[in-house]
Predict the structure of FAD dependent oxidoreductase domain-containing protein.
Amino acid sequence: MSYGLGVAITNTSMKQSKHSNFSCVNSLTNKSGGGGGASSSSKNFDVAVVGRGLCGAAAARHLAKAGVRVALVGPLEQAARSKGVFGAHHDEGRITRKTDPDDVWALLAVRSIDRYDEIKRESGGVQFYEEVGHLAVAPRDSDTVRERVGNARALDVQCERMQSESTAFKENFPYLDIPPQYDDVYERAESGFVSARELVQAQALAAQAHGASLVEEEVVGVHRDQEGGGFVVQTPSHSLRSQKVLVAVGASSNRGNLLPGGPNGEQVRLALSTRTAQTVHFVLNSHDEHRLRNMPSIIYKDDHCWAYLLPPIKYPDGSVRLKLGGALMRGAQATSEHLEPGKRELVTHDDIVAWYKSGGEATAAEEMAALLNQLIPGLQPLGQINDSCATTHTPTGRPFVGAIGSDGLFVCTGGNGLAAKSSDEIGRLAALCVLEGWPQGEVALRREDFLPIVLD
């Protein structure tokens, strides 16, 4: 099969695939829990995508649209938090916006958001995006404000600049208590929030519609196929053979059994740092839900903290919640590729699992709750839910997207706490790398900035 792309993977919207049946006819899912392994072990693919998260599902969609035989491998979210594989995409609220103080992350966001309608259409109508607007708040004339506005102009992104003491700001956001001498960058359109859960589902369904196979099981190992060449991706029920493998498992990248990138197939480790992230959810009463009904997503920075707020969102349990995350730190308003939304490094895979199970740290949750009450005074929550997440960082502040060695192993990981909104473009770049290498016509994004770094 030719790996030439032609026009299959581009930056622009595509026509809807001729596939419209979203049944599991293409799926290798073994829902019965037994059997199926022998018959599926002979199943061969051009590419196996390991990791059914935001970037992995996006890459699978773009690969399937290019016409290759692709399997998207990864488990569904478990009902019980104490079981299964943990993922940062097991969440209902992630900020999406086109403005950013970093020019690369701004471009990744613009390209991804411009394809949201395409993803929805190809998925059969999965609703994952709410266009409620976005507000960025920081001290006046800080670097983050200047660079955010400058990048918006360069990318032709529409936004308004307000002052926190202005009448316009107070009329638009009467519920916020922002000190004087703060600048506010407001995106009214093409911004808001996404449901990470639903975005993953939309990408997976769209990939399946284009011919991808969905294998809804955890990958227990990836190794070189010594007999037939390529790789074997092992799940509890299946042995999948593929010529190439794209590993997109975020914080689980260095688990020890997924990256056979050594000269003789030895496992390698990437230069990744995984850090704790704390969030709090205020369960809203009907009064607070009503008065915050027009609230955009918000990012707030000052010299002591940075925080992000999601507007009222209905969660699967029926509750309506206001979510806040972030951290207390010095110099948070400064632009930095290495701004890390977390306090503590998670060194081992067991550390990551334990953190996800813990629900976070009580002290950090109290700090976040106090900040939320400061920014939106008068809240009378019905309850507070503390939650834990993990973000994976690279030394460059850019995702790792590219090959490990020359034998067909690729990675797409290291979202740096910024990747959810931009995951479709990150996945598209990963798909291009798998099929033909970094796109030659790509002038705005440099390959060197995304190269994976393997530890010695």
Notes: Residues 134-142+154-188+273-393 form a domain with the D-Amino Acid Oxidase; Chain A, domain 2 fold (CATH 3.30.9.10). Residues 280 and 386 are 5 Å apart (CA to CA).
